[in-house]
Target: Lipoprotein
Amino acid sequence: MQQWARGVFAAVSTAFLVACGGGGPAADPPIADGAGASQVAALRQVPQRAARTVDATALMDWAEGVYRDYFPSHEPNQVLGPYVYRAYANGIYLGVADGVVYVMGLLSPGIDRVGTIADFACYVYPENCPVISGVAAKGLLAGATVGVYNLNGDGTRGGLLASAVTAADGRFSVTLPAPPAGPVLVEASGGTYSSAYNGAAIASQTTVSAMLATVSAAGESGISVNPLTDMAASLTRTYLARGDGLAPAVELAENWVAWQYGLRSRPSRIVPVFDVASVTSNPEGVQLALVLAALDTLGSRLSAANPDAIFGALSADFSDAVFDGWTMSGQPVTLNGSALPAGAGSTEFMKAFAVSFSGTSSGLRPAYLDAHFSRGTIVENYQAEIIPVYVAQEVAGYFPARYTSPVPNTTALDTRATGYTCPAGVPMTFTNGVGSCGAYYYCTGGATLITVNGREACSDGSIAVYQSATIAPYTAQSIAPYTAQTIETYQAQTVIAQPAAGTPAIFRASAVHLLTAEELAAMAAADRAAGDAAAARVSSLGLPTPLQLEWMQRINDAVIASVRW
Model:
């Protein structure tokens, strides 16, 4: 405290005041520094509250309350020439002349000047101070330190102005000692957040920041500090390096990042809302929350040991305004010591988005984006506008069957009852006296058959196997059915390994079925109907942006690649 006081207060002339006899009490003087008063008044241009005027009396009252070791008692104002001052029994004097603050006897026997009354306006009346408030989020960052810094001309961080710690919901409020002279950097570091991927508490190891080109006299509210604003800050530094002005560089970078994710507002002005009920009243807040959750999922998928590292890696990747795995300086971006995939911010992000909001543990099916979403979820209500995805075919490839050689014809006695039989639950019909089993779908691996969007599916996310109508086996009373040959269990030409936990399911056939022309036509018709339905959902919300159209193609490519893999 003493060191700070010596840096803030300078001594009023002991010789001057003592020689003049101390003087008598005087009424509170008017504001000595008109410019300082104007500056203070401008701090709180808020209709509900006017700024309080800081004069010599208010300043000295504040000093007596805060620094009792130096100003131990409440003394009356005295006037001598231009000075309004107070004298204390310990030989220290505090005074103001022409809006300038002085002390004597604290640091030296002479007069030391500290600054103007305006410099102390926010200390005397904190409500006069500009406040920067908002939310820091990856998920909601709790216990993070939010610092407000001067922003240098090249976009680097300058001196610290003030800081605060976020609440459990990520909200912060930083009171500045005075209106900043120029742009500021708001930076959040440390703290923890809950992973949208698995619910684990993650310690935030990478900082996220937002650049503010201007700060009003009253401050700024509703500021959002998140990974998207950090990407924008990284891109802003690139624009500054080529000679752009700071204000247009900040605006251009934020708008470019917003466009990448289909946001209509700048990310620093969208507070993420992790609340399903707000999808109608605050769609952009919910959309930003969806994007942040998908980025967290991306980090868990690409860097399970340190998922938080994805945020810093993507900010570095976007320094050249494109997600390509390279910085603006031509250096490869690393993620925990390994090269960041070139498509981490685009194709891999889309996969992470799908996995993050799938209703099954194995991931999203490659067709019909909302197939596994329960009614009322965020994605079911808003998915078409966020990422309108149309996948043309559910199965991208077919593999020929492989058979064994025929075995000799055999007959054998059979004591089973005579009659036709069909699998349990499959209806039997008779045509010309011959029993037939109807067509049906079934699931393997213990999964149950369900209906999703009018289509047959399996509860574990796999594709239901279609069995066409067959002739019911007939069991004679004494002779077993004639056996011409046996067929080996079907094997696909390509062997696909079991996917790791948390990765999208890979779908493959589990039984032989040669599709008829009618079945192929039915599948194509169903695909067209699903595509039309998806297009109708998108059309009702407006045409997709060029970037969203590009992402539709990317997700199609990614899906086709996943089933051909």
